[in-house]
């Protein structure tokens, strides 16, 4: 469910990454090639990007399908950035969240996206949610599973965890409480991408020293795309990509 990507590299128009490639995120909203769960990602979309000399990203999110938003098409044509995150959404279940439920979620310098679904939501995470500070729960942008997973990640970041550690801890917590969940997460701070492959596809394409893209699936047929093994934590910058195994929920 859902498709997402994060990009770090030379400054480029948002549309060059999100909508121009032959199998772009725009195309994946109605015709994903490697999505095993769900078929159409039309329950909202969003993009977050960083401007030069400003560490806090801007966002544009909507509740409808990306293909019907001509304002976004115009924005994506002219706005340029060297770091962005974008997602198209297939909601776990129907809700009234609207654009508030669409990734990327944000706080401070961070952008976050969840590709997947929490099993037996919301009952499965009742105890996990109760472990968060009340202020964190009251600050949730939406009542969907992705918003709560983001709250778990953000809580870890505020405690001082490194980005990769925060993602890994959230995945292990949710997987233990809700076995069978799909938890492909993306986290971006403008210079580093952290991601998890847990139950769904994840790929990356790196041009060391210049650019890196991490995505649910390749947006073109370039042979340099590499699939990330399931149960893997990825950390990427413009110069390096590091892969390490994630613990099983029973470990």
Strand order of the largest sheet: 3-2-4-1-10-9-11
CA gyration radius, whole angstroms:
16 Å
Helix-strand string = EHHEEHEEEHHHHEEEEEEE
Which range does the strand content fall in?
25-35%
Largest sheet features:
7 strands, antiparallel
Instruction: Please identify which CATH superfamily we are dealing with.
Output: Aminohydrolase, N-terminal nucleophile (Ntn) domain
Distance between the termini: 26 Å
Structural class: alpha+beta
CATH architecture: 4-Layer Sandwich
Point out poorly predicted stretches: none
Report the helical percentage: 10-25%
Query: Number of helical segments?
Result: 7
Shape: globular
How many beta-strand segments? 13
- Averaged pLDDT: 94
**Tally of separate domains:** 1
CATH topology: Glutamine Phosphoribosylpyrophosphate, subunit 1, domain 1
CATH class: Alpha Beta
Notes on the protein architecture:
- The protein has helices spanning 14-18, 25-28, 70-78, 126-130, 134-138, 145-158, 163-177, and strands spanning 3-13, 45-49, 58-62, 80-88, 105-107, 110-117, 182-188, 193-197, 203-207, 211-215, 226-227, 232-236, 241-245.
- The protein is globular and about 45 Å long.
- A hairpin with a 4-residue loop joins strand 7 (182-188) and strand 8.
- The protein has one domain (3-245): Aminohydrolase, N-terminal nucleophile (Ntn) domain (Glutamine Phosphoribosylpyrophosphate, subunit 1, domain 1).
- Helix 6 crosses helix 7 (163-177).
- With 251 residues, it is an alpha+beta fold.
- Residues 2-251 form the Glutamine amidotransferase type-2 domain.
- Its EC number is 3.5.1.118.
């Amino acid at each position: 469910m859902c498709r997402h990507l994060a990009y770090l590299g030379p400054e480029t128009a948002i549309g060059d990454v999100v909508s121009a490639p032959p199998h772009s995120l725009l195309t994946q909203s109605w015709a994903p090639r490697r999505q095993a769960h769900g078929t159409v990602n039309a329950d909202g979309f969003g993009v977050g990007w960083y401007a030069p000399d400003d560490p806090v990203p801007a966002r544009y999110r909507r509740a409808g399908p990306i293909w019907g938003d001509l304002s976004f098409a115009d924005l994506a044509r002219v706005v340029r950035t060297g770091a962005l995150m974008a997602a198209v959404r297939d909601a776990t279940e129907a809700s009234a969240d609207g654009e508030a439920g669409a990734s990327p979620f944000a706080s401070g310098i961070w952008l976050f996206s969840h590709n997947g679904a929490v099993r037996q939501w919301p009952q499965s995470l009742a105890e996990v949610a109760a472990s968060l500070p009340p202020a964190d729960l009251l600050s949730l942008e939406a009542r969907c599973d992705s918003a709560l997973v983001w709250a778990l990640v953000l809580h870890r970041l505020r405690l001082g965890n490194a980005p990769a550690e925060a993602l890994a801890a959230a995945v292990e917590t949710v997987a233990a409480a809700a076995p069978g969940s799909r938890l492909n997460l993306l986290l971006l701070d403008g210079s580093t991408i952290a991601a998890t492959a847990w139950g769904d596809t994840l790929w990356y394409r790196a041009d060391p020293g210049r650019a890196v893209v991490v995505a649910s699936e390749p947006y073109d047929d370039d042979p340099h795309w590499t699939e990330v093994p399931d149960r893997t934590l990825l950390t990427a910058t413009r110069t390096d990509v590091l892969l390490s195994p994630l613990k099983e929920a029973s470990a």
